[in-house]
């Protein structure tokens, strides 16, 4: 399924909880904020927002990463634009 | 001296009935008590429930509110998020997950031989497994006056916001201390365009960890941002009758209507002295979160955890560590043998200057510290070694080195 992941860079403090849980989706950049990756790749360069194709298992892990963020800076949406997290 | 939570059990005179009636034996009716409802305790409860729908879980929490993010408090104070957004759980979450939530109560005593804890309302709760997640308390000044502010709990943030709202602009404020909380105060006060004086006992911020160059880099950055910096200034007394008007130090006195105090944090372990638990600065645990006593675990800021990368028990003191230790304790309570092997990382931004701590940065434990960069170059990295292996690092304005150093510490 396709999902959209967005990191609110104004909120992100670089706590890296998302990176620990889902390193293939989140990576800290030189501003100490989390970039969103597509399966460890960054097609078209670094981005705080990305649409990616994931399996149900991958989605659950990405949501666990988002849940782990101490400032709730990670937003996950489904293909129809419905917010999956924060619930 | 440390401060106790403002939310004392006395505010909550009608206790709910005991969650546990009798002690169970098998895993199905295993009774697990968690002391402290911060991120460590709540993450532990959440993971336990994820793994088992049957175990009985109770969280005894001195604070009255559901879990909130301490890290969001500065965002709330600066008006960047609404107060409601600091909460990570709502009151219904506990019941929905069949977790007994006992807010406004403290555990006062642990009887490990008979496996029960005693609460401040006199109740005794039996347990099969006990998880201590009591966090840390802020160290307090020896005196108090209206205008003195701390920043650890939501109550502290509400109090600080009230003080800020009462001040005219421009207004002189002070910060006493040289660590994470002092940084947060500086950022918050700058947001309100206050005139800030910061005083600390050592030569610079984190004086037990940072070298001279790193310290000086931070001091100069503060001065460049119009902050008055008073290093090597020991607190003597508060000035003012009913309200704060200034601070006397052995170096210089300064005027301030608000004083943000960030002079350190320490676990409150005084009540555990006769518990049989092995305590040092915190409760000593191995990398599986197990204490020296069977069936008792400790996690988060209250625990001195064995760091598998440095071979040293230490308080890790970060949100992410607390959260993952909670999850690992839950897994191990249910029979797994998981290990906490994260390289801890904490990041601060002081008025635009990035400060990163990775892994174990205890100078006394390290046998060598190498320095890269310099004041002139505008960035300094310190790498801490034990037996020629990197175990920790500090990075001032050197974010790009993070990934390399993390990999080196992971080994
Ligand atoms: C302003 C601020 C900014 C921060 N920024 C960062 C950051 O950027 N990155 C980072 O990693 N960390 C940061 N932290 C630190 C982080 O919040 C803590 O490391 C984390 O909250 C520790 O979680 P904990 O669950 O171990 O302890 P706590 O959050 O302290 O929770 C422990 C709870 O247990 C309760 N308790 C204690 N004793 C008892 C008892 N006997 N009975 C019942 N209840 C008890 C306490 O009242 C408390 O509610 C920040 C903290 C603050 C205040
Ligand atoms: S967990 Fe949150 S704050 Fe930390 S890096 Fe990820 S998005 Fe940023």
From TrEMBL, chain A:
Molecular function terms, GO-annotated: electron transfer activity; iron ion binding; iron-sulfur cluster binding
Keyword annotations: Electron transport, Iron, Iron-sulfur, Metal-binding, Transport
Record domain 4Fe-4S ferredoxin-type: where: 3-31
Pfam families assigned: Fer4_15
SUPFAM superfamilies the UniProt entry points to: 4Fe-4S ferredoxins (SSF54862)
InterPro entries membership: 3Fe4S_ferredoxin (IPR001080), 4Fe4S_Fe-S-bd (IPR017896), Fe-S_cluster_ET (IPR051269)
Annotated PANTHER family: FERREDOXIN
Function: Ferredoxins are iron-sulfur proteins that transfer electrons in a wide variety of metabolic reactions.
Protein name (record): Ferredoxin
Protein source organism: Candidatus Uhrbacteria bacterium GW2011_GWF2_44_350
Lineage: Bacteria, Candidatus Uhriibacteriota
Automatic annotation (TrEMBL), chain B:
Region of interest: Disordered: 1-24
Cofactors, names only: FAD
Gene3D superfamilies: FAD/NAD(P)-binding domain
One annotated GO molecular function: oxidoreductase activity
PANTHER family: NITRITE REDUCTASE [NAD(P)H], PYRIDINE NUCLEOTIDE-DISULFIDE OXIDOREDUCTASE DOMAIN-CONTAINING
Domain (FAD/NAD(P)-binding): residue spans on this chain: 30-326
Keyword field contains Flavoprotein: yes
InterPro entries documented for this protein: FAD-bd_OxRdtase, FAD/NAD-bd_sf, FAD/NAD-binding_dom
Upper taxonomic lineage: Bacteria, Candidatus Uhriibacteriota
Name of this chain's protein: FAD-dependent pyridine nucleotide-disulfide oxidoreductase
Pfam families, alphabetized: Pyr_redox_2
Keywords of this entry: FAD, Flavoprotein
Transmembrane segments: none
């Amino acid at each position: 399924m396709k999902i959209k992941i967005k990191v609110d860079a104004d909120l992100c403090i670089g706590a890296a909880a998302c990176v620990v849980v889902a390193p293939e989706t989140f990576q800290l950049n030189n501003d100490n904020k989390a970039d969103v990756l597509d399966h460890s790749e960054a097609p078209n360069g670094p981005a705080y927002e990305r649409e990616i194709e994931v399996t149900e298992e991958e989605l659950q892990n990405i949501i666990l990463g988002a849940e782990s963020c101490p400032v709730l800076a990670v937003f996950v949406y489904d293909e129809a634009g419905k917010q999956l997290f924060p619930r | 001296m440390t401060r106790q939570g403002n939310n004392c059990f006395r505010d909550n005179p009608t206790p709910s009935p005991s969650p546990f009636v009798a002690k169970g034996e098998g895993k199905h009716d295993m009774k697990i008590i968690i002391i402290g409802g911060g991120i460590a305790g709540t993450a532990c409860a959440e993971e336990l429930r994820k793994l088992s729908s049957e175990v009985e879980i109770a969280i005894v929490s001195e604070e009255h509110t559901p879990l909130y993010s301490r890290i969001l408090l500065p965002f709330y104070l600066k008006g960047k998020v609404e107060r409601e957004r600091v909460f990570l759980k709502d009151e219904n979450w506990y019941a929905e997950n069949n977790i007994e939530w006992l807010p406004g109560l403290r555990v006062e005593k642990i009887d490990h031989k008979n496996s029960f804890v005693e609460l401040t309302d006199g109740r005794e709760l039996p347990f099969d497994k006990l998880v201590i997640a009591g966090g840390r308390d802020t160290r307090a000044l020896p005196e108090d006056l209206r205008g003195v502010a701390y920043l650890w709990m939501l109550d502290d943030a509400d109090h600080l916001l009230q003080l800020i709202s009462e001040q005219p602009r421009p207004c002189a404020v002070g910060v006493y201390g040289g660590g994470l909380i002092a940084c947060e105060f500086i950022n918050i006060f700058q947001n309100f365009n206050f005139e800030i004086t910061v005083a600390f006992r050592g030569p610079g911020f984190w004086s037990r960890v940072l070298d001279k160059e790193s310290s000086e880099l931070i001091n100069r950055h503060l001065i460049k941002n119009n902050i008055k910096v008073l290093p090597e200034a020991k607190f003597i007394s508060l000035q003012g009758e009913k309200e704060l008007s200034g601070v006397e130090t052995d170096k210089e006195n300064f005027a301030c209507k608000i004083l943000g105090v960030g002079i350190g944090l320490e676990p409150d372990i005084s009540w555990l002295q006769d518990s049989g638990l092995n305590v040092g600065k915190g409760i000593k645990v191995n990398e599986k979160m197990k204490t020296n006593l069977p069936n008792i675990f400790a996690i988060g800021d209250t625990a001195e955890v064995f760091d598998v990368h440095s071979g040293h028990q230490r308080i890790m003191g970060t949100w992410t560590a607390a959260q993952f230790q909670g999850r690992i304790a839950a897994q191990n309570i249910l029979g797994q043998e998981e290990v906490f092997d994260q390289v801890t990382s904490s990041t601060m931004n002081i008025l635009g200057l990035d400060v990163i701590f990775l892994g174990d940065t205890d100078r006394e434990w390290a046998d060598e510290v190498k320095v890269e960069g310099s004041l002139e170059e505008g960035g300094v990295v310190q790498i801490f070694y034990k037996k020629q292996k990197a175990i920790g690092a500090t990075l001032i304005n050197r974010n790009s080195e993070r990934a390399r150093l993390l990999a080196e510490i992971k080994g």
